[in-house]
Amino acid sequence: MLMKYNVKYADLIGLYIDPDFQEKGIGSSFKRMFEEWAIKNGATRYVIGVLKDNHKARTIYEKWGGKLSTYEEDVYKLGVAYKEVFYTYDLFGDIK
């Protein structure tokens, strides 16, 4: 049976864990809470943005199953541009 979904995105704008508290499962807990919230609010997918040079976070997002988007965006802080990349996640498996 082929089911069609109306794709609705939720956007996790930032997920920052103090280095003193990293690798304790806190980020994963926040991710699960966000996913529950997104589902309750009708989302079928969500996106997380991260600075392109933040390899530690990107490794985690990939381990969580995120798919790297081809879209990049410049983020400005105090007049300096930083590249941001985006990871997408399906909340209900592989949605076509």
Structure characteristics:
Aminopeptidase, 4-stranded mixed sheet, single chain, globular, 4 strands, alpha+beta, 96 residues, 25% helix
- Give the overall shape: globular
Strand order of the largest sheet: 1-2-4-3
Number of helices: 2
The major β-sheet equals:
4 strands, mixed
Poorly predicted segments:
none
CATH structural fold name? Aminopeptidase
The CATH superfamily appears as: Gcn5-related N-acetyltransferase (GNAT)
CATH class descriptor name: Alpha Beta
Strand content is 25-35%
CATH architecture: 3-Layer(aba) Sandwich
Cα Rg: 15 Å
Structural features, described:
The chain is an alpha+beta fold and 96 residues long. It has a single domain, classed as Aminopeptidase. 25% of the residues lie in helices and 34% in strands.
